[in-house]
Design goal:
The protein is an all-alpha fold and 420 residues long. The protein has helices at residues 13-35, 39-42, 52-65, 68-90, 95-116, 123-133, 141-170, 176-193, 199-207, 211-218, 225-249, 259-286, 291-301, 303-323, 327-338, 340-355, 372-392, 397-407.
């Protein structure tokens, strides 16, 4: 089958399996934000000097996990957008109406997730990106890759320019008037990311409080954060989604490439991306985890290499799915991927209940490395419950609700029992 040929709508086990890995992987990226004050997400020294194992965990996360799992989720969102649009067209429904209805309800789900469950929501951002993605649906894989470039340039250029200005201000390289204007930005950045941030204790107290106090904080002090996140991350997310659409049209995500080609891409991406990511991790360590260094390394300088390693992860996962994984493993991963929306939201509910004060109250008391035990537990739950659920029902619970709302009609849920 030639590349860039339209993919017929339907279940693609390879795409679902990669999505299953992505929804598990994004927990490995987010677990610190669930369990520790936000400065600890980027800074292993926030809250005090890190142990050797916690530092090693942060180093591994920065190089191999952080941004890569979100990148994988974003790539797959772009690919899935094409599938949904094509499915609507083949079913005789209005593709634009079907797509924009889905994005409208996804935005509402995202806002509910943010204000009522967890502040790290990505669904609202994805819904806003989805409003633009429809415009690119008919482009070739090559054109999609070309269009991703200006989005990445803006996504890298904006934080990189701010990082450069802050670095110059720290070094005394700006005129006095300009330096004075940067002091508030420096103060806020140190509060959010620095090694001796004053917000660490405040966040611990907040998230060990009641559900009402947490929601009240989000709906007041954090009320505008969803729009802020869109302004900050839309450019990178759009670039990744366009790449995902291109990789889907080029047949990479459908599993149609030869095994040798997946192997070649995985090796090349890892070999190119890992050395600069290691150097950026060392740069942050040698700075003493300075807030400006963390900002520059995490939100600007790492983006090209994060993106490359994201593609490398997808190539490696596809290689393992095609050459190593058993049918049972593929089916379990694919089921977790088909229920990615439900698994993502349920993960937030479970993790906030474990760590926040209205649940078990473990917030701030578990070390960075030990948090992966909670990841392993949640991954096991996803794999154990997704396939049995889908053996009985057409959709995951939240997928069913999203689909019913988007179509304006209750969708069939339970599968008919097999004829004896």
């Amino acid at each position: 089958m030639r590349e860039d040929q339209p993919v017929l709508p339907g279940r693609l086990v390879s795409l679902d399996a990669i999505r299953g890995v992505a929804v598990m992987g994004i927990l490995a990226m987010n677990i610190v934000a669930f369990a520790l004050p936000f400065p600890a997400y980027s800074n292993p020294a926030a809250g005090g000097p890190p142990s050797d194992i916690d530092l090693a965990t942060w180093f591994f996360n920065f190089v191999f996990v952080d941004s890569k799992m979100r990148g994988m989720f974003s790539l797959l969102f772009g690919a899935s957008t094409l599938l949904v649009i094509d499915s609507a067209a083949m079913a005789g429904r209005n593709p634009a109406g079907a797509h924009y209805s889905r994005m409208f309800w996804l935005a509402l789900f995202g806002l509910a997730h943010f204000y009522l469950v967890w502040f790290g929501d990505i669904l609202f951002l994805y819904a806003i990106c989805g409003l633009l993605l429809f415009l690119f649906r008919n482009l070739s894989a090559k054109a999609l890759l070309l269009w991703s470039l200006p989005f990445f340039l803006v996504g890298i250029g904006l934080p990189a320019s701010l990082w450069a200005m802050l670095s110059m201000a720290q070094a005394g390289g700006l005129p006095a008037e300009a330096a004075a204007e940067m002091q508030e930005a420096l103060r806020q950045m140190n509060a959010d990311m620095g090694p001796s941030t004053p917000t660490y204790g405040k966040e611990t107290a907040l998230y060990l409080g009641s559900y009402a106090s947490i929601v009240g904080h989000r709906t007041s002090a954090m009320a505008g954060d969803p729009l802020y996140f869109v302004g900050m991350f839309l450019w990178e997310a759009m670039g990744l989604m366009l790449i995902g659409m291109a990789l889907f049209k080029s047949r990479m995500l459908t599993g149609d490439w030869p095994i040798a080609r997946y192997r070649k891409w995985a090796i090349a991406c890892f070999l190119i991306a890992i050395p600069p990511l290691v150097m950026l991790a060392l740069y942050q360590m040698r700075s003493g985890y300075d807030a400006v260094a963390i900002f520059g390394a995490s939100l600007a300088l790492s983006i090209p290499f994060d993106t490359l390693l994201t593609v490398g992860w997808i190539a490696l996962i596809m290689l393992l799915i095609k050459s190593v994984a058993s049918d049972a493993v593929r089916e379990q991963l694919a089921a977790a991927g088909r229920m990615a929306f439900t698994n993502y939201l349920v993960t937030s509910i479970v993790m906030t209940t474990i760590f926040y004060g209205y649940g078990l109250g473990l917030f701030g008391s578990v070390g960075r490395a030990a948090l992966y035990l909670f990841c392993f537990g949640m991954w096991t739950a996803m794999l154990l419950w997704s396939k049995p659920w889908l053996d009985r029902f057409h959709y995951g619970p939240f997928e069913w609700l999203w689909r019913s709302l988007s179509r304006g009609a209750v969708q069939p849920m339970r599968k008919s029992p097999p004829v004896q």
